[in-house]
Design a protein that fits this description.
With about 475 residues, the chain is mainly α. The chain contains 21 helices and no strands. One of its GO terms (cellular component) is membrane.
């Protein structure tokens, strides 16, 4: 969409307000999908929810590729938004629930790694398709996602269901077979099954393949009540932490900068559309490479340290971007050095987000909720994520027109500095079982003694990994 917007604005002669609406409407429509995706996955299963999301996304992409008018584009973008809302919930939940604790960080980050490689392919295809005729190029850009959507539907028909969802349905025998496939040893599979049965309210000594499970556990009913009305201190802290990481992921300005990056580059003097799209390719490479690196660091260094490094780097690079844009906006002459520095700072900014704030948010929030609350708890968190994203995307142009581009970058710098203090207070979850999270978040934890608490959790987590 970042590349397509350049050509849509030219062909359809739409205003900046309409551009913002077209960009932001995806997240508006993702909101109701996020709210029902968790309950849907509790009802029909994780695997079929992924298939549903793919089909919806495929239909929306086809409609946008057809795109004879602005109204049809909006409608297609809304359908894609519904698919995105489902996918944002179910992909990390499915990944977390089939993963072993020792590799969960890596495996749960793969949806985000894949997403960023998809963005890179989007930037590259935009650069190539931008050379086609005006009325064909952007339509091809928006129709191409139908191909991976169709491939995903076919692949998911062959993949296993989440063992945790199967246990919630009382299908213990099927869950055991899945765990034997996705665990390192038979002993690990049996240990994980015992922990999951306890979390689902089933006697761990029960040897039956099919057991009766309370209806509210099977369908996820009552989860929202427990999250917001009958909340225990550990669950309250888990919910606050999950929502917090999602809010701060968006308010650093990453989605606005990614989507409107051609406008940022235009401000520095790049006017040719082909060069603008080429500059976004470099941004996509930076994001994809560092997200991939992050996947290997998550289980080595932990979630919290990557968030702190990432937020610190974002503060520095956004400050640099603010200085460069201030020079551009207050200078009457074209300064070529600011162009180079702006591009470098944006690439480094994207790299710092990609190594921590981007992927760790999804890993952390998908693993900290208890089994009975996981899908719907993540649904609440991602709903807040999408609301924040809508605000950032739909106000990005208006804000920089009001307080200048440099002023908007300095604003995001201050917000990310607050995020650093928030990340400092989070407990580490590296190497811990999903069934241990309530215990971890139930411990007293003060910002002043977070280093000692973190070290204690690291030692326990390493012992669990060795086991």
């Amino acid at each position: 969409m970042a590349g397509a917007l350049l050509f849509i604005k030219e062909e359809l002669q739409i205003s900046d307000l309409q551009v913002q609406l077209l960009a932001g409407i995806l997240n508006v429509c993702a909101l109701p999908a996020c709210m029902v995706a968790g309950r849907t996955s509790d009802y029909i299963g994780r695997r079929y929810t992924i298939i549903l999301a793919s089909v919806i996304f495929l239909l929306g992409s086809l409609l946008m590729g057809y795109g004879p008018s602005y109204l049809i584009l909006i409608f297609g973008r809304c359908i894609v938004g519904i698919g995105v809302g489902f996918a944002l919930i179910i992909a990390p939940v499915y990944s977390a629930e089939i993963s072993s604790p020792s590799y969960r960080g890596f495996l749960t980050s793969l949806p985000d790694v894949s997403l960023n490689f998809g963005l890179l392919l989007g930037y590259v295809s935009n650069y190539s398709l931008g050379k086609l005729s005006l009325n064909l190029g952007w339509r091809m850009m928006l129709a191409l996602p139908t191909i991976p959507s169709l491939v995903l539907v076919i692949l998911m028909l062959k993949l296993v269901e989440s063992p945790r969802w199967l246990v919630m349905q009382g299908r213990v025998g099927e869950a055991r077979k899945v765990l034997l496939l996705v665990s390192n040893t038979k002993e690990e599979a049996e240990q994980r099954l015992r922990e999951i049965k306890v979390a689902a309210g089933i006697d761990e000594k029960c040897t039956q393949d099919v057991v009766e499970v309370p209806k509210k556990n099977r369908s996820g009913s009552g989860a929202l009540t427990e999250l917001f009305c009958k909340t225990s201190p550990p669950v309250r802290r888990i919910l606050f932490s999950a929502i917090g990481v999602h809010v701060f992921q968006q308010v650093c300005g990453i989605e606005g900068i990614l989507l409107y990056s051609p406008r940022v580059f235009e401000r520095t003097g790049i006017m040719d559309k082909s060069k603008l799209l080429l500059a976004t390719v470099g941004m996509g490479i930076s994001q994809a490479v560092f997200t991939f690196i992050s996947a290997f660091l998550l289980d080595r260094f932990g979630r919290r340290i990557l968030l702190l490094i990432s937020a610190g780097g974002v503060v520095v690079t956004l400050s640099g971007l603010g200085v460069c844009m201030a020079m551009v906006e207050h200078s009457k002459e074209k300064q070529f050095w600011t162009l180079g520095f702006t591009i470098v700072f944006i690439y480094i900014f994207v790299a710092f987000v990609a190594i921590g704030i981007g992927p760790v948010t999804w890993v952390y929030s998908s693993e900290i909720f208890p089994l009975r609350l996981r899908a719907q708890g993540l649904g609440v968190s991602v709903t807040v994520n999408r609301i924040t994203s809508v605000v950032v995307i739909s106000t990005f142009i208006s804000i920089y027109k009001k307080i200048t581009m440099a002023g908007s970058f300095f604003m995001y710098t201050g917000i990310t500095a607050l995020a650093w203090w928030f990340y400092y207070s989070l407990p580490e979850t590296k190497g811990r079982s999903l069934e241990d999270m309530e215990t971890i978040f139930g411990k007293k934890f003060q910002v002043g003694d977070s280093k000692e608490a973190w070290l204690e959790q690291q030692i326990v987590g390493d012992k669990d990994s060795l086991k």
